[in-house]
Design goal:
Layout: E1 4-7, H1 22-32, E2 36-39, H2 45-55, E3 60-63, E4 68-71, E5 76-78, H3 82-93, E6 100-101, E7 110-112, H4 118-128, E8 132-136, E9 141-145, H5 150-161, E10 168-172, H6 178-181, E11 186-189, H7 195-199, E12 203-204, H8 209-222
Parallel strand pairs: 1-2, 1-10, 10-11, 11-12
Antiparallel strand pairs: 3-4, 4-5, 6-7, 7-9, 8-9
Helix pairs in contact: 1-8
The structure holds 2-phosphoglycolic acid and magnesium ion (MG).
């Protein structure tokens, strides 16, 4: 039975402008009564904490694509080495006109506007021997420590909390959600999800964004996965 649902934020419970979908808020509140809802996002810690308070989801949550884990009231753990991201950014900036985004509150990774060849940039990082990777969330490109991602951080939470794979579901929209899809028992992608994510989903909603998230929650209830 599912007792934890890991949910992405941007593009999953929001629209393509990152505006929170009112129907998704209702669906999250419904989900809170069925399972522990854990936010797993590329957003910064303070943003995610505010979202958890407003949505009534668990104070255990994952921010910065797995670089930061909140273990409940106040306890925050960094799983990533910020120095690796900084070095990667400075080297890539010599090649591409990178523009940092919302860096003021970021602790472990760095976020830049998309618009450059991510694959080519990753090859450069490999060649320079910098253990960082790039992930495009559909809203920005994250320069992060290669040893962390949403799946690694969620696995850490599951391990320390004694939660089994088959007890966890995940809902997402982009490539950055693939790692967490690979460590849970039930995976669902919203209709606007990227093809790679849909290919690894147990359910893909017809509808997109927030309405798609609501459809997924209905489906979870209908399938009696809780
Ligand atoms: O931070 C981002 O780029 C997107 O956030 P998300 O992981 O909640 O989709
Ligand atoms: Mg997303």
């Amino acid at each position: 039975m599912i007792r934890v649902v890991a949910i992405d934020i941007d593009g999953t419970i929001t629209d393509d402008e990152r505006l929170l979908s009112p129907e998704a808020v209702v669906a999250v509140r419904r989900l809170n009564s069925l399972a522990e809802v854990i936010l797993v996002t590329g957003n910064v810690h303070c943003f995610t904490r505010a979202a958890a308070v407003l949505l009534g989801t668990s104070k255990t949550f994952i921010a910065e694509n797995g670089g930061v884990v909140s273990w409940g009231e106040g306890e925050m753990e960094l799983l990533s080495d910020p120095a690796i991201c900084q070095e990667a950014y400075l080297r890539l900036k010599e090649v591409y006109p990178l523009k940092k985004k919302d860096s003021r509150y970021r602790i472990t990774d760095l976020v830049v506007d998309s618009g450059f060849d991510v694959e080519e940039a990753e090859t450069l990082l490999d060649g320079w021997g910098i253990p960082a990777d790039l992930v495009d969330s559909g809203f920005a490109v994250h320069i992060k420590d290669r040893k962390v991602d949403k799946g690694r951080a969620l696995s850490e939470v599951m391990y320390r909390r004694g939660i089994l794979r088959e007890e966890v579901a995940a809902v997402g929209d982009s490539k950055s959600d693939l790692p967490m899809f690979r460590v849970v028992g039930f995976r669902a992608s919203v209709g606007n999800g990227v093809p790679e994510l849909k290919a690894e989903s147990d359910y893909v909603s017809e509808l997109e964004f927030g309405p798609g998230f609501c459809e997924i929650v209905d489906q979870m209830v209908d399938r009696e996965i809780f």
